[in-house]
Design goal:
By secondary structure, this protein is of the alpha/beta class. It is 48% helix and 9% strand. The chain has a 5-stranded mixed beta sheet with strand order 1-2-3-5-4, with helices on one face. A hairpin with a 5-residue loop joins strand 1 and strand 2. The longest helix is centred in the first third of the chain and has 22 residues. The mean pLDDT is 87.
Amino acid sequence: DALYAAVFNLSHQRSASNRFDVWGFNNVDAQMAAKVQRAATLMEQAQTKLVTEQGFSIAHRASWPMQILVEPRPPGELGAFIFNGPFPFDYNRSYIAFAPAGVNDAEFPGTVIHEYFHFIQEGFLVGKNAADYHLSDWIAEMSSSWVEEQHPANPTPYSNFVARSWKDSLYGGVSNVLVANSGYGKAPMLKYISKQWGNAKVKEIWTAVQGGVHPVTAMLNAVPEAPSQWWPNALSQQ
């Protein structure tokens, strides 16, 4: 690690728990070392929130640390949870990448926990065939968007570009080929459900999906009210 960092002028930081190995790939960015440090700290805080406090499992990955890359990303992409290789994915080789341009943003913690929650979700999808796996694409984006404002370092009220897009995509269908429109925009529904009946509802939904329940049915079954009752309330409150 030290040799690579020196030869290629990379920034490198292992997180406090040794759970995350953070690398910065942009040797013309004078702030890269500080950005790598910030990413390492925020990843640890996301781990505490999701695993220690909310009780989500990371047992589907056996090889640690996870690599976290601060590297140039496609235009408009602030972060991504990435697999190497074809489906079925190797969870031990998955990693997270962040665009350097967004690391200093006040709402970057939301991006961090969004991408880490995508990794958490994979624990509920182990052994799924490709078709069943992709049925959950929209619910994956819904729940990762929902969890963004729960990062301990996140400013409130939460208003990043994903949250501002909710009003445009809330009414889209739940087709697995419309991930952005039918996933991100459903976050207000999950926000309402968790505020009414607790964050454990999110784990309940994912556990049902793990057991083979269709994702739409899993979400509806988690709500102890008829849609005709909770849906208008969700619209008015969220």
